[in-house]
């Protein structure tokens, strides 16, 4: 019977569904492309459904041919986010229109759409190589590895793996190599670890800025303007020490000095 006739039978077209009552409780090697991907990316399946629509064509009483005929780009967009069981994570950072992956050191680093397309192609090829002989592999090896499909999957992944500006905020647990939040994180530590309330002491804004600039240099971070430092540190000091910035302090006979009253700066760590 020809393929055209077989395709008209809805029962031969199958989306992946887990066996609710598996006869054998031992893990089985995947026998279809959908089984192969769902085993590795169960969360992508739970959120976006079967990776493929497959044609299962009986050969005889005991065997069948399996042909994946349609791909689900939503599943593969989610799969590009990585495997949680392996500690993998890839996000699309909307604020910069950039891709980030979490490296083995736990720090997020930039990557590119082209590299993600390469990962997608590699997954399809690995799946094809693991499939038994009864699985038709043309679409896995050739059709869906072409640029058109690869780019469509990566583009779909942008909305699925989208992370807003809070992902790399100063209070977020997520870390990256470069970013404005690194200065904000250091400003929080600067206030919590180096500033204390002490009656009679005065911390001038310029002295605080000089000390913070030294910390930036120690950590090989880019310098910031004094105005930017002021914008960062003023609300932190107010929140941590309940002390506001004043513009009327008197220091060594000078009037109108900016700074904080009853705040002391401890020595910088070596």
Structural features, described:
Strand 4 and strand 5 (98-102) form a beta hairpin. The model is unreliable at 1-8 (pLDDT under 50). The protein has ten helices and eleven strands. The chain is rod-shaped, with a radius of gyration of 29 Å. It is of the alpha+beta class and 270 residues long. The strands form three sheets. It has a five-stranded mixed β-sheet with strand order 7-4-5-6-8. The protein has two domains: 3-168, no CATH class; 181-265, Winged helix-like DNA-binding domain superfamily/Winged helix DNA-binding domain (Arc Repressor Mutant, subunit A), CATH 1.10.10.10. Helix 5 (113-130) packs across helix 7 and helix 8 (180-194) packs across helix 10.
Label this structure with key terms.
270 residues; alpha+beta; Arc Repressor Mutant, subunit A; 2 domains; five-stranded mixed sheet; three-stranded antiparallel sheet; 10 helices; 40% helix; 24% strand; disordered N terminus
| SSE pattern, N- to C-terminal | HEHHEEHEEEHHHEEHEHHEE
Q: How large is the radius of gyration?
A: 29 Å
Strand sequence of the main sheet, in spatial order? 7-4-5-6-8
Strand content: 15-25%
Low-confidence stretches: 1-8
Distance between the termini: 80 Å
Q: What structural category characterises the helix and strand content? A: alpha+beta
Largest beta-sheet details = 5 strands, mixed
How many structural units, i.e. domains?
2
């Amino acid at each position: 019977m020809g393929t055209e006739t077989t395709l008209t039978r809805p029962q031969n077209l199958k989306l992946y569904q887990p066996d609710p009552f598996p006869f054998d409780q031992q893990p089985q090697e995947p026998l279809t492309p959908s089984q192969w991907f769902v085993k590795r990316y169960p969360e992508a399946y739970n959120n976006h459904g079967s990776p493929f629509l497959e044609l299962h064509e009986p050969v005889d009483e005991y065997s069948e041919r399996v042909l994946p005929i349609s791909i689900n780009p939503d599943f593969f967009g989610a799969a590009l986010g990585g495997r949680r069981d392996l500690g993998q994570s890839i996000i699309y950072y909307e604020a910069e229109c950039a891709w980030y992956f979490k490296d083995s050191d736990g720090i997020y680093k930039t990557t590119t759409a082209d590299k993600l397309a390469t990962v997608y192609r590699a997954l399809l090829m690995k799946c094809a190589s693991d499939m038994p002989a009864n699985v038709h592999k043309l679409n896995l090896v050739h059709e869906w590895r072409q640029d058109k499909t690869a780019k469509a999957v990566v583009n779909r992944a942008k909305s699925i793996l989208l992370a807003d500006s809070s992902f790399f905020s100063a209070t977020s647990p997520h870390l990256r190599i470069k970013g404005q939040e690194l200065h904000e994180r250091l400003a929080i530590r600067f206030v919590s670890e180096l500033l204390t309330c002490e009656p009679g002491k005065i911390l001038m804004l310029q002295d605080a800025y000089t000390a913070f600039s030294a910390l930036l240099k120690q950590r090989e971070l880019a310098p910031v303007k004094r105005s930017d430092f002021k914008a960062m540190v003023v609300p932190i000091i107010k929140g941590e020490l309940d002390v506001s910035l004043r513009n009327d302090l008197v220091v060594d006979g000078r009037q109108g000095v900016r700074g904080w009253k009853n705040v002391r700066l401890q020595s910088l760590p070596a």
